[in-house]
Amino acid sequence: MLIQAAVDRALAARAAAAAADAAAAAAADADAALAEIADDINAGRAALLKLVECLGPVLTHTDPFRREAGVALLAAVLARTTKERISTQSATVLAQFLLSRLDDQPSVEPALNGLLAMLDLGVLSKTEQINIPTRIFAELNVQTFQQSVRNTVFRIFVKLFDANLPGLQKLGAEFVLGFIHVMDGEKDPRNLILAFRLAQLITRHLDFQKHAEDLFEVVFCYFPITFRPLPNDPFGVTADDLRTELCAVVSSTKAFAPYAVPVLLEKATSDSASAKRDAMEAVAACAPVYGGDAFLPHISDFWTAMRNEMINAADTANELAALKAIRELAKALSITVAAPHTRATPLESFLSLLIQDCLQNLADPALKFAKPSGKIMMSAASASEPACSFVISKTLPVILGAIASDSAPSKRKTLCDVLGDFIVANRLVYGQPKPGGDLDVNGSPILKQRDRLFELFVGNALTDSYVPLKLSSLRALQDMLLTPRLLRPNEEKVVLELLLSWLLAEPDTNTHEAALEAAPIIAGAKPALAMEVIVSACLESLPHRLAQQQPAPIRGALLACEALSKVSALRAHIVTSLVGVFNTTLSLHALDLEAAQKSATALLDALQTILVAAEASHDDGPHPTADVAALIQSLVATTVHAAQSRAAAMGDSFVQLVALNVATMTRMLTDAEQTSLLAALRTMDTGVAPVWDSPAPVDATFAYLFAAVLSNSLPEADLPIGTFGAFADASIIRAVESGSALFSLATAKSIASVVNKRHGQQGIDTFVEHFVQTHLQGVLLDKAAGADRRRSVLLIYSWIAKAFAIQSDKRGFEMASQILALLADEQLGAAAAEGLGTIISDDAHGALTKAAHANIKLLFKQRFYNHCLPAVAAGFRDASDAQKTAYLFALSHLLRNVPKGVLLNELPKVSRAQANFQLRYRLLTANLAKLLPMLLHSLSIPEASLKLGTLGTLQLMVREAPKLVAEQISTIVPLLLSMSMFANASNGNDPRVRVAALEILGQIMLSVEYTALHPFKPRVTRELIPALDDPKRVVRKAAANTRSIWFMPAPTV
Amino acid sequence: MLPRDISPDEVFDLIRSINDPEHPLSLEQLHITQLDLVRVDPHDSHVVVRFTPTIPHCSMATLIGLCIRVRLLRSLPPRFKVDIIVSEGSHQSELAVNRQLNDKERVAAALENKHLLEVVNQCLKTAIHTAIK
Question: Which residues of A touch B82 (CB under 8 A)?
Fold first, then answer.
């Protein structure tokens, strides 16, 4: 009698849960008892019918709530039982019982749940399944029940479609009618989604013709959907979901057409923009299903509605919906058979209406509606071949005539745009290969007018003086070129020559910009022809332009090269040629070094842009044909040779620019290629002076470029450096002795890269131990060692620390602590701050970055930040005024490079564990509160870069911790005001600082509580007046915006 | 002193995204304000903004002008004298509207009116950028 006990316990607990205070405990008990019963049944220790027997007295109890509890228990057990435990016989009994409970109001919900559970289990026979809807229709007025009951009913229906479609089909019209009654008046969005889906199932599978109108009415009354989800969207149903399902019902069957078309027309002409959009979207969805003939009687009214929408479109979504509806209607009408007694086909009568109106608009001298008219005709023409042919053949002559007869260039431009639209429409219809067939361009209406159009556009583009017309013509020519088999080869060449002439013209003109935009598209479609006509001409023009030393033409040609290199087929050739031009430029003795460097810099910048784009695009290998290793070698050789053979020193920044390109190109090579490249560089001979004197480089320029290759190589590449310890020691001595910053940086990067990536080298750890011992004690901590020497060593020291720190080696953090201690050193303070910046920032030349295959542990920056911050904060507190700056710089570097999320959630583990927002906020605030005094102090130091970094952090605080800012508001606002004044520009407040200060001032008004700000309002609005007259436009703009924000009424803008 | 080249373009930038009091569209979208209709004389610190009401009997013309006036009051340096007028021939009561918009006292009095200021601020909302990089 175990089960009896469990049942009693479950029922008692349930009653307790409903009544008593210890509701939660009782509910848990009920649940446990329930699980026990289910387990018993599943394990075969008890039979289901036994349970019913036990429940007997409860199920027939006079108290309705007792009865309900009994049925609920039964349903809950059913939901947990396995199929095998319910015999056919007991299933029949149970189903009959549950169905009979449907006339007992309180028991309806659990009874339905039980039925759904049995359906899910699949234990009911076909007849019993069909009894469920019949019984529901007979017994229940579903809409009088609560949402959950209605939801269950819909789910039962959905399940039935799945389980017993033939049964439902037999029920047929009876089910449809019942469903209509069940659904009528439904308001809950979750239920409506189900109801709409059911309606689709009905139209697809059942015979609903008798009730088609009723079914349509009961669904369409929700059109247009105006539902707005509750805050936080507890149901997970959006208006768009409902809209999509509703639209799917309406467009699911042709039988709805007679009822739908008039009402859709009514909605399409209503006043509400969203109703109109929904109606037009529905028209677009229904047209293919209903067929053109359904719309034919109302076609002119639909056209009027859509035309109005196009001309007075409230927003682009409506415009797009209208265009799509036009297109779909034209498509549907294209296959509609004409009535026998009419002359024009349905399609022609629709298009005639449309063309007539559009041509009328185009004839209007002001051409206000020309653009929408062009788009309308384009949409209609792209629907089908007959539509395309009809629209274009009817309108093209008229438009061409208008262009010929009209002298106003702006009007001709508008008409050319329309012609361009036609070419696109034509391409959409005729340009796509037919399934299983070839292109069918012969019927294309544009083909017949090809010569006339081509002449017109070329003439406009070449000779007209009105620039917008030229641009529009180029666009049209581009579209003609992209249409397969439209232009003859010689005509294609004409288009490319035209493009070339624009590309080589003055930069920063509209034509040049348009040409830059068109170049990759056109060259991508015709790469061979582009190579022949455009690319070689652009490259050939370069040396001449460089020789003339005028920046604009050089830039123009380089921009053209950049645009063309977006086509992967052309890229290798362009890159190779640019490197060639660079080599000639730099080795030309006729030019003085400064001019040569200037030209070469422009070339390198362009090259870098191309390489970065290539690296990012990943298309079929960056250089399918170019020999990248050879290009790198020639770049290095030329640069080093030029640096050695001239008296004047080559600027470090120039070498770094070369190195940037070398680095990017190195990353494109395989490890084998990198190995042989490094070996080749090692033995390079410039003919002027040796670059390598075993065991290490002797030339600073060479060393830096070599480091760029080395630090961007894969760890698998072999290094031609002999013994690492000897190489490193010799490099350090030479770099420090030379006093060259470039040499030191080269050495630092080379050593750090090897330390991090190993490259199979021996003796690294011994070297580092030795280095740290001798140089830390001997140089860094020895104030008598000389400032330059100490700085060079510190640079190398920082890089080695970085190599360890990024892979979370504790030596890195120990070394960083030494650097932190040096912040107080008056000679090295600034350099130590830089050193910390080096460690936490990403190198622009790739050294020790992910891209350069460095060994980096996750969350390194966060860990490093947490390691340094306490030391920086403590040091700042104790530092003298002269020392404070170094700490602030260090802080600025840390803040600028640490991920913003880290800054805000410094203690994410705690917050996640506690899942307590309040606590998290307090921690965040405490963390930032520590920083705030330091931040504010650094805003008063006249250093633009320091201020910018700090303002970035302050901005974050304003957004994320406004309460904290409010506490300090009386310090912050005056500080920001004084920083935004041009009069204080000499205190390191350059335009970027002024803009940032103004933006934060605006952000404060939006984020910080207004009561804290109110006292400042008159002051801020008054003191911002001078900023409105700043010499820089960006500052004026920011000032105007911020002042407007402060004028707005509180608290929201 | 550095050159201060406040251009028509810059002034237009300040007023283009003001919302129309009646429609959810900006003055630029409705062609009420256009770049061609802004004149700036930087030497005399004089700005003339013309605007074109959508229809000649537009009852909102004064309100639109007031919005432009307030926006420029808040955003241009005070050394500028600003004239705001309806484009010639674009409004039935052109003269009256112009007089109202360029009379300091009447503008000040209008802005004393709480309700009116609210409407103006509502229209100016859209001209403000609230997003920060």
Answer: none
- In chain A, the residue whose alpha carbon lies closest to the alpha carbon of B128 is A1041
A221 close contact with B: CB closer than 8 A: no
Residue B75 has its nearest CB partner, among A959, A1003, A1028, at A1028
Of 3.30.565.10, 1.10.3430.10, 3.30.300.130, 3.90.79.10, the CATH number of B8-126 is 3.30.300.130
Domain boundaries, chain B: 8-126
In tens, the pLDDT along A645-656 reads 775 667 788 889
Cβ A1044–B71 below 8 Å, yes or no? yes
User: Is A173 in the B-facing interface, judged by CB distances under 8 Å?
Assistant: no
Which residue type occupies A446? I
- Render pLDDT for B60-98 as a digit per residue (tens, 0 to 9): 899 999 999 999 999 999 999 999 999 988 888 999 999
A residues 938..957 contacting B (CB < 8 A): 955
Does residue A134 belong to any structural domain of this protein?
Answer: no
The residues pairing with B86 across neighbouring beta strands, listed in sequence order, are B51
Is A199 contained in some domain? yes
Q: What is the pLDDT of residue B133?
A: 37
Closest C-alpha among B87, B3, B84, B94 to residue B46: B84
Q: What's the mean pLDDT when you consider all of chain A?
A: 84
Given this model, what pLDDT does residue A922 score? 56
Backbone phi, then psi, for A228, in 5-degree steps? -125, 120
CA pseudo-torsion sign A774, A778, A779, A780: positive
Question: In Å, what is the CA distance from A566 to each residue of A124, A475, A575, A607?
Answer: 65, 19, 11, 12
The answer, for B118 touching chain A at a CB cutoff of 8 Å, is yes
CB A445 within 8 A of CB A435: no
Judged by CB atoms closer than 8 Å, whether chains meet at B129 and A1033 is answered as: no
Give me the residue from A955, A1028, A1044 closest to B127, CB to CB: A1044
A214 and A174 Cβ atoms separated by less than 8 Å: no
ipTM: 0.94
